[in-house]
Each structure stands twice: as structure tokens, then as C-alpha cells.
Amino acid sequence: MKKNTTGWMLGVIGFGLLLTVPEITWAQAANNVLRIRRVEATMVRTPVYQLQEGIRGTRTREWLEVRTEYETAPEWLNDATFTYYILLRNSRPQQGESEFNLFTGEVTYMNIARTRSGVSTVFMHPSTVERFGGIERVAVVISSQGRVLGMESNPSSKERWWERVTPRTGFVLNRLQSPFAMVDVDSYEAIKLSE
To answer: How many domains does the chain have?
Structure first.
């Protein structure tokens, strides 16, 4: 009986290719300031806070959270602005409404210390998601003092799809504008407030 070794060999070759791909260093990156590790969107339940008198409000809904994980090289960054783009697809739009809706919002962090595990998040209210549909794709563009430090899309795309349509503003909320403001506070940088 002859063994089928083709699948095994392809697996070994694929594993070998994974091992030989060099890690991108800071010198090879587009800049040596900030690198985006991942951007993703998920639905998360409203946090429940317990007060001395007991729990208030037992109904929890699902918020859309867009999360960016990043790392920085300089000892300090004065600030970094994360501009988010969220494309929702409504499978049953009302008359006069579009099937696709693009939303944008930004959050600026200040006094960012060197990190390998930086996190930025924004949120959309459950009613907005219910009205305008499910997640189609998301993107983030990070800049500092007028210079783009990085951009990433999920799903990954080489084109800037978010520049094709005029986005809606006012629907994307930073942590301080959401019920998640007090959750895991020390994992996030200080948000620069509008003056």
C-alpha cells in the first residue's frame, strides 16, 4: 500500500516558509514612530456597574467596538490622532436610505509613552448599529502633527476605500463618550479634550 505523502510535504514546505519570513524591523517600516499591529471590530455588551444600593439597569445591549493595537518606538509621542472609518451594510434599508453607510470619528491621545501594547478604541451606540446595519469593514488612519504614521483596514485592502464616499460624523464615540470609560482605564492613554 502506497502512502500519500503529498499533503504532508506541502505542510512541511508551508511551515518552512513561515519560519523563513523575516520579522519587519523598525528600520524597514514606513516610519520609525508607530506601527499598527491590528484593527478589528466586534460587538460587545454594555458593562454593568454595581452601585452601593445595588445594580441599576439590568438590560444590556451590544455596542460596536473598533479596537486598534499598536506599538511605538520613541520614548514619548506628544500626541497621536486615530481617525476611524466604519462601513456598515444594511440588508433591509428603509426607503430613501442607502444600503452602505460610512461613518467616521477620531480620538486624539496625548503624552504617549513608548509601548509594545498600545490600545485605542471607539464605539457606536447599539441603536445606530441596529438602524444602519452590520459591520462590513473598518479602517484606521493614525497621524501626528500633520504626518500620517500608519493606516490599516480590516479586511485588509491596498486601496483607501474610505475616501470614495463622504462619511457621516457624530456617530463614532470615544471611550469617554461611552459606558466603557471606566473599564480597564490604565490600558489606555489620556484622551485630549476639545478646547
So the answer is: 1
Residue 169: count other Cβ atoms within 10 Å of its Cβ.
10
The vertex-154 CA angle with 118 and 179, nearest 5°, equals 55
d(CA 53, CA 50): 8
Q: Is the pLDDT of residue 123 over 50?
A: yes
Mean pLDDT of the chain: 83
| pLDDT higher than threshold 70 for residue 55 | no
Q: Residue 128: which H helix or E strand, with range? A: helix 126-132
- Cell for 153? 483596514
CATH number, domain of 112, equals 2.60.40
Structural element, H or E, at residue 6: helix 6-20
Q: Is residue 186 part of a domain?
A: yes
Q: Tell me the pTM.
A: 0.80
